[in-house]
Each structure stands twice: as C-alpha cells, then as structure tokens.
Amino acid sequence: MNPLIALGLDFFILLVEACLYFAVCWFVARKMDNWSIVDVAWSYGFALVGLQMVAVHFFFAPISGQGLLMAAATVAWSLRLGTHLAKRVLGHLDQEDGRYLKMRAEHGDRMPARMVYFYFVQAVVLAVLCLPLLSSSPVNVPSAPAPIHWAGLGVLSLALLIETVADAQLAAFKQDPANRGKVCDRGLWAWSRHPNYFGEWLVWVGFLLMSYNSAYRGVPGLLCVGVIYYFLTRVTGVPLTEQHLLASKGEAYAEYQRRVPAFWPRPPRG
Question: In this structure, are 108 and 24 located in the same domain?
Fold first, then answer.
C-alpha cells in the first residue's frame, strides 16, 4: 500500500476512535459536573494510541525499530503529562479549572452543548498530533533507529527535564506562605514566563526528529511543531494563562512581563 494512503487510513481510524473516546469523556464530565477532566483524558490519550500502535503491529504486522522507539517515547511523555495533570485535576474535583469557569460564565445553560464542540476539537487535535507517531513506522519501509532519531530522543529528554524542573520550582514557590500573592521569578521562571510551555513545544521538536524517515521526510512532525507553537503562544497556552495571572496578581505580574520574555528563554537581566 502507498505510504500516504496508509497514513490517511490510519488517521481516519484514529479520528473515529478519538471521537468515541471523547464522547465517553463528555458523559463522564457532565455526570461529575467538572469539565476539567478533558485535560487529563487528552494527555493520557497519546499513551493509548502508542500502546495500540504497538499492539496492532505486534499481532498483524511487524513494527520498525524507529516506530517502537517513537511509541515508547510517546507513551512515556504522555504518562508523565497525564499523571501531572491528574494530580492537579482529580485531586480537586470540587474546583474546576479557571478556563472552564470562565466558559461557564460565558455560556451559562448552554455549557454542555458548547462542550460537545470543545471535546470534538480535542479529538481532532489529538488525532492530528499523533501523525508523527503514525508516520514513524511506514508500510514497506523498514527503519531501524538512526542518529537523527536518537538526537530526537535527546531533545525530548531535555524537554521533559525542563518541564519537570519548572513544575518543581513553581510548586516549591507556591508552598512557601511568604510567597502568597507574589510572582515566581526564580530558576527557569527567571528565563521565561512560561518555561513549561517552552519545554512542551520542545517535546514536539524531539518527536519531529524521531519521526523522520524516507517515506514522509518529517512533514507530519513539522506540521505538529507548528500547530503546537501556535496553540501555546496564540490560543490556549500563554494568552489564557497571562490573562488569568494579570487579573489575579495585577501590577506584580505586569512588572514581571516587562522583565522576562513570554516564551523563548534568555538569561536573566539585572
């Protein structure tokens, strides 16, 4: 089968599965009256796709060494992110995330209907962002891990380290009562206002390198790098977070904005 046709078929099947998956999540979220669980479901969704890919290839067709490496990396990243969010969301089910509270205020009784569309978008985005994984083991193109794939794994490892350190530094800052109402500008947070988002984008640079092969030339991965950058810096990441922090911390955060770049890290200035 032509690799492009095979990739298109895999994408269509995954999109249908993702829609069913998020439909179940919608019913659960409505029953719990907490729409925040979609963040956890979305994060763990990549691990499910990675495990499914390995299982399908194990029983029906051999998976390439590159594909196996990519699947393992995707599962590891997904479980780390999903578990981090699960601790925050599932540990406080009585407190919905601020983004969804704002949506409730805007949509009122139409919130469940609005979330049908929102959850559908999550399904589409999940399927699109799985393209690097789906393209990492092309039909009739056996591929063992090459130097570019190991380099991608190195970038991914660096990205996860950045995210882990940034999360730990922010958690430690918040736990100190003396910092109540203040802005965390220490460690990586002195280099970037959103080092966790930068690390998340870097994850997809790693996936881009890990998914490169002669069949697709890394195009699916490059698409996802662009999509992630757009969403993090223009849609759901930086803009919404900054809006919330400006409202809650006022001039302290405005002053932080003047000193520290939003996304791309740079050494702190005196």
Answer: yes
- In whole angstroms, what is the distance from residue 71 CA to residue 195 CA? 25
Q: 169 with 187: CB under 8 angstroms? A: yes
Tell whether 206 and 88 lie within a shared domain: no
Residue 259 CB contacts under 8 Å (≥ 6 apart), including other chains:
185, 269
Q: What predicted TM-score, i.e. pTM, was given to this entire model?
A: 0.91
Tell me, yes or no, whether 169 and 239 share the same domain: yes
- Residue-by-residue pLDDT tens, the chain, 270 positions: 788 898 999 999 999 999 999 999 999 999 999 999 999 999 999 999 999 988 887 777 778 889 999 999 999 999 999 998 998 888 778 888 877 888 898 899 999 999 999 999 999 999 999 999 999 988 666 678 999 999 999 999 999 999 999 999 999 999 999 999 899 999 999 999 999 999 999 999 999 999 999 889 999 999 999 999 999 999 888 998 898 889 889 999 999 999 999 999 999 876
For residues 160-174, one letter each, b for 16 or more C-beta atoms within 10 angstroms of the residue's C-beta and e for the rest, the string is bebbeebbebbeebe
Rounded to a whole number of angstroms, the distance between the first and last alpha carbons of the chain is 59
Helices 65-89 and 37-60: crossing angle, nearest 10°?
160
Amino acid at 64: S
Q: Which domain holds residue 224?
A: 146-270
Both tokens assigned to 34: 């907490």
How big is the CA angle at 38 (ends 168 and 33), to the nearest 5 degrees?
110
Assess whether 24 and 119 both reside in one domain: yes
Helix (H, G, I), strand (E, B) or coil at 72: helix
